[in-house]
Input
Amino acid sequence: MAKKQKPKPDNLIAQNKKARHDYTITDTYEAGIALTGTEIKSVRDGKINLKDGFARIRNGEVWLENVHISPYREGNQFNVDELRNRKLLLHRKEINKLGAATAGQGNTLVPLKVYLKHGYAKVLIGVAVGKHNYDKRETLKKRDQERDIARALRER
Output
């Protein structure tokens, strides 16, 4: 029997699945990314890795750090560093809210998804609180129990 999978939206490029495992996401914000010409071409090809990425507020601006965008194959001298810091485009009110949210102990900004919206690359960043190992085990246990309940109801 084939397992049903959720349909993947056409505009979703990359997703950080490990972020929801390692962190409790309290709030999310959509931000634009300031990219060069060859970087956006590489992103459209899906050559982006969010796994170790995070966002930081510096000098009243939000910067996306440690996100790897592979060089564009035909980019030659126009390619830039793969791990360079990229500016996130947000309104001033949103930046102030993020600053207040991350001022608390243990809060951080984590990129969750990168997708295209009206031709522009957008990133969904989440205000996150780190989980302890016992929290991670509890989440896995709850998910397994819900799966067993759903399976039992489906068989009835």
Q: What stands out?
A: The chain has four helices and nine strands.
